[in-house]
Amino acid sequence: MSPHPPALLRGMHHTGYVTQDSQATVDFYTRVVGLKYVCAVIDDKVPSTGDPYPYMHLFFMMADGSTLAFFESIGLPPPAKSTHPGYDVFTHLALDAATRDEVDRWAEHLRACNVPFVGPIDHGIIYSIYFHDPNDIRLEITATTDTSWTNHGAQALEDLAGWEAAKQRDRAAGTGSAEVQAWIATRRKWHRPDAGH
C-alpha cells in the first residue's frame, strides 16, 4: 500500500447535512441563496451502512459544480444541543464570493429577504458575512482579500507546534488556558486588519 495519497483531491464534491424540513430547505437555498436544486435521491435504507432510515436526499449546485446536500429522514429526532456555544460559532460552511463588493451585495440581499446576518467582517485575509439556514447551520459568504493566504504551509506547521506545546504546558501546570492565551498574544495574526503579515 502506498504511504502517500494517490492524488491531490480536486475540490469539494458535496457536503451533507440533516434537515427536518425539506420544503423549507429547498425554498431557502433556491430563493435566498440562489442555488440550483439539481437532484433528489430517495431510498428506504442508507446504502453505505444498510441502516433502515427512509430518507430524501436533496442536492443544490454551486457555480463550480460542487453541491450542498441535505437528508430528511422520517422519525429522526432533532439534533442534540451543543455542549458549548463555541461549537455553534466555529462549525460553519463558508461559500465563496468573487469580491468584497459581492459580499456587500449579498448582505443587502439577505437584508431584503429578512435574513439576519453578522458582518461584514474584515478578517485581513477574507471578508465575510454570517447567517443561518432553516436547519440552524451557520453559513458564511466570503471573498478572499489576500491571495497569498494559502501559501504559508511551513508557518502553519510551526504554528501548530507552538499551539500544541502551549497546550501541553497548560496541562502539565494545571493552568487552564493561561499558556495558550500567552502564546496567542505573541502570534495573533490575519483576523485583524492591522495585523502584520
Model description:
The chain has 197 residues and is α/β, with parallel strands linked by helices. The protein folds into 3 domains: 14-73, 2,3-Dihydroxybiphenyl 1,2-Dioxygenase, domain 1; 85-144, 2,3-Dihydroxybiphenyl 1,2-Dioxygenase, domain 1, CATH 3.10.180.10; 153-187, no CATH class. Helices cover 31% and strands 26% of the residues. The chain contains 5 helices and 8 strands, in the order βαβββαβαβββαα. The strands form 2 sheets. It has a 4-stranded mixed β-sheet with strand order 1-4-3-2. The longest helix is centred in the last third of the chain and has 21 residues, at 153-173. The protein is globular, with a radius of gyration of 20 Å.
